[in-house]
Amino acid sequence: MSYLALTDADREAMLETIGVSSIDELFADLPAGVRFSRELDLPPALTEQELTAYFEQLASENEPAAAAISFLGAGMYDHYVPAVADAVLQRGELLTAYTPYQPELSQGVLQAIFEYQTAICELTGMDVSNASGYDGTTVAADACYIAKHATGRGKVVVTEATSPQVRQVVKTYAPGFGLEVVEVPHRDGATDPDELRAAAADAACAIFQHPNFFGVLEPAPELAAAAADAEALPVAHVDPLSLGVLEAPGRYGCAIAIGEGQPAGNHVSYGGPHYGFLAARAEFIRRMPGRIVGETTDVAGNRGYVLTLQTREQHIRREKATSNITTNQTLLSLAGLVYLSWLGPQGLRDVGETCMALAEHAKERLGLPLVFSDRTTFKEFAVRVGRPADEVVRDALAHGVHPGYALGRDYPGMDDVLLVAVTEKRTPDDIDRLAEVLTG
Amino acid sequence: MSYLALTDADREAMLETIGVSSIDELFADLPAGVRFSRELDLPPALTEQELTAYFEQLASENEPAAAAISFLGAGMYDHYVPAVADAVLQRGELLTAYTPYQPELSQGVLQAIFEYQTAICELTGMDVSNASGYDGTTVAADACYIAKHATGRGKVVVTEATSPQVRQVVKTYAPGFGLEVVEVPHRDGATDPDELRAAAADAACAIFQHPNFFGVLEPAPELAAAAADAEALPVAHVDPLSLGVLEAPGRYGCAIAIGEGQPAGNHVSYGGPHYGFLAARAEFIRRMPGRIVGETTDVAGNRGYVLTLQTREQHIRREKATSNITTNQTLLSLAGLVYLSWLGPQGLRDVGETCMALAEHAKERLGLPLVFSDRTTFKEFAVRVGRPADEVVRDALAHGVHPGYALGRDYPGMDDVLLVAVTEKRTPDDIDRLAEVLTG
Amino acid sequence: MKLIYEKSHPGRRAGRLLSLGLPVPGVPAELCRTEPPRLPEIAEPDLLRHFTELSTRNFGVDTGFYPLGSCTMKHNPRVNERLAALPGFRDLHPLEDEDRAQGALRLCIELQEALAEVTGLAAVSLQPAAGSQGELTGLMLMHAYFADRGEDERRRKIVIPDTAHGTNPASVTMTGYELTHVQTDARGNIDVDDLRAKVDEETAGLMLTNPSTLGLFDENIEEIERIFHGAGALMYYDGANLNAVCGISRPGDMGFDIVHINLHKTFSQPHGGGGPGGGPIAVAERLEPFLPAPAIVRDGERYRLDFDRPKTIGKVRGYYGPFGVFVRSYAFIRAYGPQLREMSEAAVLNANYLLARLRDAYDLPFDRLCMHEFVLSARGLKREHGATAFDVAKRLMDYGFHPPTVYFPLIVPEALMIEPTETEAKETLDAFADAMLAIAAEAAERPEELHEAPHRTPVGRLDEVKAAKRAIVRYHFEEHPDLAAEPAAAGVESA
Amino acid sequence: MKLIYEKSHPGRRAGRLLSLGLPVPGVPAELCRTEPPRLPEIAEPDLLRHFTELSTRNFGVDTGFYPLGSCTMKHNPRVNERLAALPGFRDLHPLEDEDRAQGALRLCIELQEALAEVTGLAAVSLQPAAGSQGELTGLMLMHAYFADRGEDERRRKIVIPDTAHGTNPASVTMTGYELTHVQTDARGNIDVDDLRAKVDEETAGLMLTNPSTLGLFDENIEEIERIFHGAGALMYYDGANLNAVCGISRPGDMGFDIVHINLHKTFSQPHGGGGPGGGPIAVAERLEPFLPAPAIVRDGERYRLDFDRPKTIGKVRGYYGPFGVFVRSYAFIRAYGPQLREMSEAAVLNANYLLARLRDAYDLPFDRLCMHEFVLSARGLKREHGATAFDVAKRLMDYGFHPPTVYFPLIVPEALMIEPTETEAKETLDAFADAMLAIAAEAAERPEELHEAPHRTPVGRLDEVKAAKRAIVRYHFEEHPDLAAEPAAAGVESA
Ligand SMILES: Cc1ncc(COP(=O)(O)O)c(C=O)c1O
Ligand SMILES: Cc1ncc(COP(=O)(O)O)c(C=O)c1O
Question: Is this prediction's ipTM beyond 0.90?
Fold first, then answer.
């Protein structure tokens, strides 16, 4: 195999040093009953050239975003990823390093994570961020675990207008945490603070997505206040690209801010890998799950960075750890850092405003009935298409346009509703084309 | 502009330090008559996202090799380029460095060139190689310039079976060198040593391609001997990928070996950039054009590498230099080094044998009349298609196959001849498909 | 070096957007951003230099030998990066119509089938994002399985050996189970007598790494299987060490019911300085109905997502798992094919060779042949010269090597856990062995060399106690403290 | 570090080929390879590490400030790399049917048009591979043009100023012309009186870099134009310094008939450690018929190659030029559009700022505002402290900067030719200026610091004389000499 370096001569010499006469002898400790006697039933080994041909074949059996003008979002978005982000991720010293357990050889990754944590704190208005969670769904479960231990309460509240992916994952984790999950229905596309307040009574936390799954701006400050009234931790699930335009959750009373990092610097990649971010107020720092990088100095007084507060973690605290996570999504969060640094504060605002402007333009251009007509939306909106939305999708695809997501898949009674996402990569021409296909 | 760092504040401060009040003042030395008063008539600036969209559009208006099963070669070949070669070329420290004038900061590039020179010497059986020439055509002109000064003669010989691209470039350069160019016709696809000997009388050098443009193996040792008899320098133009199978030119009396490096590690890229290699016997070392890296030691006795024998070069020798070249093709020759190291001696042989075997298989499978039926060929061969070959190409393309090169473009009387190239990337299935399209 | 925020200048930027001149809709005042986030303001040239410089201050497998035990730091083929970046994979939306994602679904299914074959189990879910999440998922499956049989109330206990990785007990707690600890015997196997006494009808299952974190294959595995299955309990295989046994011994054949696979270890997904990873789980037939939804299934010539899974535990992660990781790991598997066995054989050969070269200079807690990794102890060096495993690790950096894992597993004092992987050449192993021997000698002659190590790294030994005490976990701009001005903390805590 | 050949082990390899089991045809014995080439035998993991380590021993623009005069070492945007790698460009065969290469041909034509606009000339050929080849091509055009007018026999002389880059005279010789040298006046312009005396009916043309290699714009350019065109001669513009004047002054408007453009300088093709480059030439109407064939032309909506060029000088390079370079440079041009002027303004501002900060510490041969670069002299340092330009250059490395170009142009003793380019930030310029000032101070206080520099590089000052004397230009395997065992040579020759 081309990935192996040992020659027959090497093998001979090594076996001799070890003092055995064959490689089989090295496996002497394996009971006969558990030895695998036949050859693995796998397709024959491929050369790099064959590998390339086969995978190019598989890739060609998919229709990437570019294959159609795509307005599909619903949680994963076709935002522009700058070349510099991809280039940085291919630097071997970063790409092929493990978690930075040995700080003196890992200052590059450690400083990058510290810079990432700073960026997330700045975006969310929080005091502390971890080095990343798996994705935008599992960080919601993480938030519940923090809240459970912080409040000792046995229930969590999630708004129905929060991404179905997120709600499903929370429900999967909750029993193990000893938590019950309560959903608060949306009213005309947004959440009613009073309903949330009522539901949040003796809840550990209340999670709401903002902008929510329908693209609608929630009355976020009121929702946070309502949760706080019930002494449940207010948790906002936010789109990082909205935070140049929308207020930082930390500024309207949230205890924890979480979100899916993909829109900021990651390719959609059929759903992963991406990064989930999780930031909180200082009081929760010792309950944070996962890696956290802290600043310190070396023996000579030089500034340096290390993994810190490790007594929270599984490798020290074991069954009392704040989480079991070890491997996280550092490389993807690095892409996030590069992307956010590439944009800067003004660029972040520009992206948000461009998406909003294009989405608003699309609403008008389409002229289809808006499902939540008197709500403000960010980059996504729901329209009625007068017949089953999945049929509309299929027909539009035949014309080279992916018009969006059929909401009926997650929300009963919305079979005729299409969720249309408009990123800065869509042009007014694209929108005209969408209008032709949907209405023309 | 996103590539510029200066802010307005920076500009102010800098102008003040300079002691001028505006940027215009910096151009005070320009006579009014030569100032450009209007705005450049160029399309408006594009953002990176727009740039990507526009160039993807342009790229989509081409049909790359993969768009058809391609048997097109004739000088540029669709060989497999390993991922590791592309990855190494994207290392910023190598990609964005200039010619290594300052060796202490350039050991990476210098050692790589030294390793490349060694690989070229090993392939060709020569004593010295330069750091690269522009491509496989200009190195032929370089060889003529060496030969002219080495022999003082006023004429060069090139075989007609040498690539038309190479011959054209030699003819363009020759007058400036004070050289006349004589071509030796091919006989049934190969060159007659006696004809070459006769033509080479008082010639500075005799250049022959082997395998030649028709893919045919020349009687290389005899051609070299014939040139030597006439005291003309024998110059072989070789395919690097043939040298695992075919003898090294240095072993059969050539004074100089040259070639196009593209097949070894470069993508076809519509004809460039690639690297031309040029290697010679030791006696010509001080006549070599271009950069040469040599080994030395530093003040502490550590091994190191530097640009050497610079007294040959234009920046020192000026009008007496052995060449005017400065910028060469280092990055592409680095790809060559990575590729050859990736293959190793056995891999190089395997590539050559695989191409030969597939080409032979294709001859049989096609069953079309071979133009040079009793010649041995390497990876390319000429067949008669019974009607204008360019029509055959057009028709085959309609069936998703590019069957080869219409030789009539360069050789009168060969309008019905197709030059078919078979690399290791073509499969027996591809060949069956070619057969169907051409004969079925 | 400076933080990117310290290089920031108002008004600079790299990325720009086209201004379309379309009206920007108003946002209700109470929702508007009041103060912009202080993201870096930097032009592209300096942006690129910043991250390039950061990379030069980091050590990866591309840099050199990285024998970090339990992490399987093997070569990451660049072709896998090229393949994962193909637009057909990279730009495919997870909610894309199934008919338009057949290649991706097919890749997932072929990977599932390959993992089922390698583990010797019936069904696979690719959803878990990493090994730790595989563990959570596996334990959730145990709940679901026993709930389905009405035994979940009763079976509250999970047995874990004292050699287990910290994620195991943490996962147990996070899924609401209780821990039962079992000891290790004199040969490094699970103490079977201790085990018998602790497994009963309240036991839900076992979590075991085999070969263990000691790098030893448990010789009693068949007896262990009888004990657990005899008690109606399930067996979970922590696949972190699968690199030792591909094609040689299969967890399913050992009797395990649930296995997680760390794609970023055995199957070469680059670890990226901390992730991404992939933690697919393979399970026995009887657990298949409970796997996360959606399942990815074959349907004749077609491939589709099956959401109709009445008994599923639900979703553990968004969509179908880290697809880009699947591309790389499946490419890696296809490059070996049935010769995956050669991969594991080379990994075990390399480990035993290093062990043979080092066994006399360091303490060997369990004197056996090892599998793909082994654990030494610096106990002797510490007792005689005051040189700890931590010192040895730091000193290795001066020799140009990444240190092994230290102080794990916990049952071995001053542990040095060494995993060379299969992709290292003999001369690399020899150079490392020579360094380890030289360091052992230095410990005797000039131990301060070790205490003060490393000497040739971008920064010296770092004060981890100060970091934890001050908890400066973000840049504070104008208010950022100057830690250099503050006294060093109590002394350096071990990693 | 070791050479890759020193890491080679018989039997190792990285790349493998599928064996198809097809018969391999025999090769006539006298043509068969007798001994295999001793290429490296190395597995992929060590192959990748070798080249990664090499890269860490090299300095690029990505590493830091690179003010190498005359080379325009500006930021190389990564998006250009991404675009050049698009399969539609990267895998397109140059002999592909024109209808199947319309995007590539269109790109070439749009680039030609952009270059024509920037240079103010009528027609462009993209064929030359670099500036030097652009020069050859330009001089061949002069021959063809005059031959066409029956003047080629007579017009044998090319005028070149003493500030010219070495390629200029070398190109003159290689095209069979004779050299006429002209001097520089007290302000750094061409000495017009000297020029008048030397230009006559035997003069074929002038080769001039403007701004000159002194970084000065020739104030007499209009008079120069009258002299040459008055004598019926042609004017060639060496475009190496075009970065100074884009959108500000056009060679065509200055009267030049032929211009080469270094795409790897002004238009940001990464220099790759020595290449590739691109050296398109732009010419006036009257020279268009002689341009290399094929021409790339618009034909209504279609783009094609025009081989029917009866007066062409022929081909100077294979196919149509270095296409991949065109992709990068055209992308760079489109990123600026008409704001290319801002690029040149920033380049000139940066240079003048540095000049202002350094003029008191070093000698300034011509006291004028500079354009995009400037030339200082270490004459004073040498006279007073024995510190040469070479010493200053080596010492700069210890401060983390790439040195400027030294000992060029030849008319300035101890020349330091400094070109910051437009992409550097003010604080970078300040840091460099501080270093230059510190070094000037060191020269006075402890000159040995400079003589012994560099101190912080992978290798120390290298013995270039030994390299030239021994001429070890390849690895010799078993017979490779040990140069360390040999005495140092006469002393270090200056670069
Ligand atoms: C033995 C063992 N178990 C579990 C894990 C957790 O796996 P992951 O890091 O993929 O979550 C690891 C690796 O950290 C490990 O070494
Ligand atoms: C002034 C000048 N002229 C000509 C050249 C030659 O250009 P190239 O290196 O592209 O051949 C250079 C660069 O080396 C130069 O600086």
Answer: yes
